[in-house]
Amino acid sequence: MPLIARSISQLPFTMRSLNVTWPLFNIGDFSTSNLLLAHLTNLELAISQLKAVPHLLHLCPNLSSLTICVSVKQRLLAIESFTHTKLQSLRIAHDLGNAEHLAGLFDALSFPNLRLLEARNIEPSQVSFLFDALTPLRVHELAARAVQPWPHEQLTTCLVRSNWSLETLVFSAGVLTTDEQRAGYITYIPSLNVVVDSMCNHFV
């Protein structure tokens, strides 16, 4: 049994919140921890591939808040379709030099009760940081990177499948979106609150 799975298996099943940012979770680590995961309502962790997210959500049927930091170094893998009916908050810190991986995630998932979605761009070296402790990349650092455009079409399709339940959409530092894209979300969801980090304004 992997060390991280063995450590989690020793935690009380009454836990409702869990933060694990190191080492990175692999898809094989989850099945050995499923008794605890089944009771969680809040989870923050670092993972090595987005393909693991549907499997993780399947093992966490009561999850209302999920925060993930993702380090993607492998080739793009197909992501299994999945609908999670209780998730209300999803925050993703991702290296948007590999935005096609995030597009694949939005293509696969549905969240009929999702209220908050936040995305931010990180360096691969930041994957083990807690989401709220991440330091925004500086403008010159972002300009020097091959940051890919935000997967607008895939998110829009995901929101359609999720019956437009979203209330707040947050684009944190380094996420490339356009005025037209953000206006498009509001066209579909007039009550939507779109929040743009000041660091994003340099890339609009």
Structural commentary:
There is one protein chain. With 204 residues, this protein is of the alpha/beta class. The protein has a single domain, classed as Alpha-Beta Horseshoe (Leucine-rich repeat, LRR (right-handed beta-alpha superhelix)). It has eight helices and nine strands. It has helices at 3-9, 27-30, 34-37, 52-59, 99-108, 139-143, 152-161, 179-188; strands at residues 17-25, 42-47, 65-70, 82-83, 89-94, 109-110, 116-121, 168-171, 193-196. It has a seven-stranded parallel β-sheet with strand order 1-2-3-5-7-8-9. Strand 2 (42-47), helix 4 and strand 3 form a beta-alpha-beta unit. Helix 5 packs parallel to helix 7 (152-161). The longest helix is centred in the middle third of the chain and has 10 residues, at 99-108. The model is unreliable at 139-144 and 200-204 (pLDDT under 50). InterPro entries: LRR_dom_sf.
Q: Can you list the strand order of the major beta sheet?
A: 1-2-3-5-7-8-9
* Helix/strand class: alpha/beta
What is the string of helix and strand elements? HEHHEHEEEHEEHHEHE
Number of strands: 9
Fraction of residues in β-strands = 15-25%
Report the span from N to C terminus.
46 Å
Q: How would you describe the shape?
A: globular
In the CATH hierarchy, the third-tier topology is known as: Leucine-rich repeat, LRR (right-handed beta-alpha superhelix)
Compute the gyration radius: what is it? 16 Å
Amount of helix? 25-40%
Count of runs of 4 or more consecutive helical residues: 8
Average pLDDT confidence is 76
Q: In the CATH hierarchy, what is the class?
A: Alpha Beta
Supply the CATH architecture. Alpha-Beta Horseshoe
Uncertain parts: 139-144, 200-204
